[in-house]
Amino acid sequence: MKHVLVVLATSWGLLAAQPVAFAETYTLPGRADEASGSVTIAPHVLQQLSAEQQQLVQRRLTEVRAPEAPPAAAPPSGDLSDFERMLAQRQYDPISTRLKQYGYDLFNETPSTFAPVDDLPVPDDYVVGPGDEIMVSAVSPRRNAENTLTVARDGTIFYPNIGTLTVAGMSYARLVSFLGQQIKGEASQMQLTVRMGKLRSIKVFVVGRVKKPGAYTVSSLSSLSNALLSCGGPTKAGSLRDIQLKRHGKTVARFDYYDLLMQGDSSKDLRLQAGDVIFIPPTGPQVAVAGNVKSPAIYELKGTSTLADVLQLAGGIAPTGYTQQVQIERFDENRARKVLDVNIDRLQTAGTMTLQDGDLLKVFPVSTKLRNAVFLEGNVERPGQYEFRPNLRLRDVIRSDRDLKPESYMELGMIERVTPPDDHIELIPFHLGKALAGDATENKRLSPEDRIRIYYRWDIQELPKVRVAGAVNRGGEFQLRPRMTVSDLIHLAGGLLDQADLSKAELTRVRIIDNKAVSQRLEVDLQRALRGEKGANVALEKGDYLLIRPVADYKRFRTVTLMGEIAQPGVYTFRDGETLTDVIQRAGGYTARAYLKGAIFTRQSVKRLQEERLQEFADRLSENLYRQSAQQAATALSSDAARSNSEAMSARRALVESLKQTKASGRMIVALDKLNQKPHSTLDVQLEEGDTLVVPSLINSVSVLGQVYNPTAVTFEPGRTLGDYLAKTGGTTQSADQGSIYVVRADGSVLTDQNVGGWWPFRRGIRGAVLEPGDTVMVPERLAVDTSIRDIRDITQILFQIATTAALTWSIVTK
User: Fold this and answer.
1) Whether 245 contacts 252, CB under 8 Å
2) Angle (CA) 273 277 278, round 5°
């Protein structure tokens, strides 16, 4: 009986009719054919289902197959006997699927070394016959003779000066003696040598259960085994244990090939004669031996064979074989299979129990579990199993602390014991330190299969740590060791830094007093502690925190970089309080070509501040643009207007994104020309680490950019105004925003119409401003005025100033 689970679920494509909507699981009783994997369902079960369900079930049943176990490695199915094929299909029993019939692999490929060749020594019992060559060498004082004689069909040879001699039927030893008498005669001084030359070929017949039956021409030295190898050997249906040699209609020998394969006994491997017939009868009873034997295979039985005989054929039971339960699967009178369990420790059973044809003998492995051992595990020097003996105790396994690895947890060890009858695990704790000290109550009695576990201390307890910070090379946490002091901790931290205050350090310690955490601070004299004085070199406790303070106002040398038109440009160090004027004077002042109004002074702290402000400005603009985009999309009167607004907004967002990617220059406006006239005035700059001053040479031009007819640089002329330079470029275009013209001075300041200076009515506006060398006039484009456009103008101004500073600095550096 086989049950098939068929799950019917909601589907729109499985049935041709309307979609069904149900989810049921049916257990269908039926009959399964294990060989084909097909399933037959009882008709009354299908009748209980609707027509749509029956159709779906029938379709699903065609896909059902018997569950398959992972395939075991089996011999190729091309040349398997019935017995081998039956075992190979036992997927549930992998130890027997690889078994093959013993001895037949020898005939898969015929080795050339088995074929007799002409230069092999001829045995004394070799019988001479027609076609053999006899080589006779005679050496005497009067003459030497060398003759090669061939035995004629009538069994004779002709020797010169002697005549015809009959030699057929003689053995090789008799032939040597006979020719010596006939040729040598009374000539005692003659030396006669007789040897065989080319040997005759004979024809034999190989019939029965062989791969290639027929007549074979072989050497006269061939034996029965040589002939079998020549014809490819028996098939797996042919016997290896009853090979019959027939001569003149009678059976002259029965050869058991197992004697040759297992014992090397070739006494019955007779030499063949012309006309011999080798007959291979059907194989006898066969028994398969699997499992823990030395040579698992399928063996052919000869006569009545006991269990002991079969195990001897398989080389005996391997050391890993379990002898108390050897299992035999047997066909019971061609009706069914049954299983027999045999304890072969009883020699009488093994010697008297007879095996039958088709039996499968399985020898299981012994349990890998050690029954007479206890196991030592954990933080020990020699873990593993130890022999169990009666009255074995813990100290017999762990004799002293030398058997332990460092930092074993002495307060607790554990014995894991399997306790019958349900084999549950019982934990038996013990105090390892007391047990090693001789405490009898902690020296536990052991049982077989006990596991003794010794713990590493820091797997059980929290690792004690101390911390050091401040003016040390490698601050952090370190493991607290016994008798560890302040100097030890400082050495572990790589020692003190140069700026460390050696007069005192602060050690913070937390203790529990009256169930309250109380923090204590101790002052440590580092000089005395590092010298190892007991009073100052405080012993550390778990959780201590040591702070090494630096000396007040300790600073390493700081540098400022002077570039461009400086008498001696380079990198200069400075002290606290030194100003830009002080360093310039140390550098020899300016060259004659220096243009002080165009100097660029940059500072790292200003750069960081500018970048923060730029990011805030860009974020605020992004929020405004998203807000305006939503408003414009809601108020757009047509799709064209919406598309135009979207394109304009995309351009603004791109400009804002470029602002986010822009790196600030860190430029400060320094009136270097005024400072040169009044050194150390309020205009002087206190220096910081990383400051850079770039003094360009005189710039003899004014740049006019933006909405003019010819954006270009114009030669500087003293006293000329912005309007004069605009006129030289052709004036502003019609799209220029006249009210938004501004000037970026060479020192980085910006001049607009609002800060141009002068009093009404004498105020002339931005066009009347007198320009200086290096100034840049920007004429922006006139756009629809809204807040976003004003923002974009601000962005453009910022980007231009940054780009101008970077370009000027680069030109000076690369000179």
Assistant:
1) yes
2) 110
